[in-house]
Write a structure and sequence with these properties.
The structure is a single chain. The chain is α/β, with parallel strands linked by helices and 878 residues long. Helices cover 64% and strands 6% of the residues. Helix 19 links the parallel strand 4 and strand 5.
Length: 878
Amino acid sequence: MTDMYASLRSNVGTLGQILGDTIRTHMDEPFLDKIEQIRHLAKSSRQGNDTAREQMLTLLAALPDEELVPFAKAFNQFLNLANIAEQFHTISRNCDELVCVPDPVDQLLGRMLNGRIDQDKMLECLQTLDIDLVLTAHPTEISRRTLIQKYSAVVDCLATLENPQLTEREKKQNHLRLRQLIAQIWHTNEIRHERPTPVDEARWGLSTIEASLWQAIPDFLRQLNEQVEERTGKQLPSDIAPIRFSSWMGGDRDGNPFVTAKVTQEVLDRNRHTAARLYLKDVVLLVNELSMEEANEELLALTDNSHEPYRVVLRELRQKLRDTIDYLNARLEGHSPEVDLDSLIWHEDDLKQPLTLLYRSLTESGMSLIANGLLLDMLRRLACFGIHMLRLDIRQDAQRHSDVIAELTRYLGLGDFDHWDEHEKQAFLLRELSGKRPLIPHNWEPSAEVAEVISTVRLIASQSPKALGSYVISMASQPSDVLTVLLLLKEAGCQHPMRVVPLFETLDDLNNAATCISALFDIDWYRGYCKGSQEVMIGYSDSAKDAGVMAAAWAQYSAQEKLVKVCNQADIKLTLFHGRGGTIGRGGGPAHKAILSQPPGSVDGRIRVTEQGEMIRFKFGLPKLAVQSLALYTSAVMEATLLPPPEPKPEWREAMERLASDSVSAYRAIVREEPDFVAYFRAATPEVELGKLPLGSRPAKRRVDGGIESLRAIPWIFAWSQNRLMLPAWLGAGEALQQAADRGELALLREMEQKWPFFETRISMLEMVYAKAEPNLAKYYETCLVPQELHHLGEALRSRMATGIKVVLELTQSDALMSHTPWNRESVELRNPYIDPLNFLQAELLARTRKEQAGSSNVELALMLTIAGVAAGMRNTG
């Protein structure tokens, strides 16, 4: 690597050397020599040395059973440590100018206030921003929580080592701590023995907040306040919360039979318990800090002119928080304690009012400096997290709601709701929504599945509105899908108007989204219910699996444009909820670019976005990283609102329509119409073996007996990233671009790439995927695992990829992929010598286990470790 990355290279070298020393202590010297030899051969093989490649394959094939696990573990952990070093590099004081970019909010404020945007307009936008990041537990987070905590401790050591004031003794102690941590990592099993439960996943989400975001939110807002004050002379309000957090962990029951009403109740209690525990820590610190006597009349009157009025209020809060924790502990242990809720922190105002009173008293008594310390941090945490920590979304498949009404109408002798047409369904639902009598009889005994849906809506009705986010309906396609949920909520006695959000995810549903929402707005009852606001969720994962990334991206863009138009005409505020996955094949990629490439008018100060699986750790796992990510989101949403991208020219739209049409045809010609495709997919990837990895709580398939269409988007992407073909992230796109070039449209495509953020982002993502793909490795999997009669399909796929790479380079007029993002290219090249041997070994082990039907426990574990290692190395494509 170049000198530009000297500090990164140094940290990678340090961590790698300690890992080598750790392995040497527990394995013999020849084993370590073999690892080094294979690593060097992998590097040479990368440079086109066929002899080195053959030698490496010979060594890998000859590994005895007892060396398989430590070998896979060694390469796996090196990749994890390289990820840590790279993650740290972006927040390090020694990072280079390509990575350590200027603060995006500061840059944006400078551009805006330099005559482009009125200062008051900018401040109003900032104060009304509503960015909701929704944490989801999709099973792409390979690493166990215990290892994640150790990786964070490694980062702390690297940060300490940057201190130039360290004494030699302190340096030695820090190196000792690093060695201890890496030894702990080496001796910890990377693979969970059991699948996590939905409650485990929810606890993992809470641990991210506790370890990082709890500190990052006030840090970010203090930084934001300083930037605004420097440029405008104005302070931000104490309760500003441009970014809030929601969660699907413990609320997403779509295809997950393990998420029940009982589980959701436990998660809601745990969310509240974590919040109370963290606020208690803050209050204990404030009791120590706020010892002053001077106060305003309001506070003195409340505390009977106490000599320590602030402490009087804080001690009462401290007791209430302790009682709240005791009460929630009892509930989590299965008890139902009787308690006066007035003695607990049970509503946000129970905490907000006394803290605001203390803040007001300090500022009015000339102690703003003190007020703007930990007390302001606490007020800002409260504005962001509330007393529930995360607002829990509920998600369920549209058919499950329909099944409830159908079973009920059959029981009542009204016919079968499922067999009615849309007009009949709407008429029935609106009649019942407007009626006064209950629909569900007391003596009705529904089936278990229907009873579970009813238990869920009853649970929602019993909760504080602030504990919950949206009710998301997956596979929604008609207005009746929304009205059905609203009727179920009414029947459960839900008093608060919960946001009910249709999720449009297939290509057809995206194309029909605006028609569906327009039809909803034509219903007077619904217009009254939604009170001028509508949230719509756009699905990325399933639409890409259905139509390929290029056609899906255009359908998502077009759907948003039409939804904006429909909502503007109806004078209704639209919030778009983007169901982006972490990987490019599921709509992932840099969030900043993605937001800025949305259609003009579609953001308008409001946005919801899912943050999935391992991307939560990569973006928010460390406080400084989290501050960077929060700044990126804030600047992107402000820019998209105040300086929106241009409307695409008519000729750009027409070209995009042709690209989408050609790409979906090319994609489906393989995935749906090629008779050998499913057999090739199952043979050439570890799709079947992935089912054995205890990743998330959710089953890999929606239906056990289904084919590709029933496979969830995540294992679909995951399997193709393991054999490095990355097929879902490019199939159809390159072929469509080549057809456009053949029609003589290359100049038009270049104009679109240079002037239209949407198209530039698509090409940039395509470049990254092609750069990370390894057709030669995919061919090796084919040689080892795929029957000869299916090899023609692999050749066709690799040929399509080559076509795509060639046309993208022509379009961008570059000699190499990602030449304009050298940091990303360096990042890929840093990992390849470590990922390649894991891939070769994985193919060998897959062949071995499939031949023997039942491999030894060593072989099975080593195979799982190779899957974990490749996923760690591939980052946002695995």
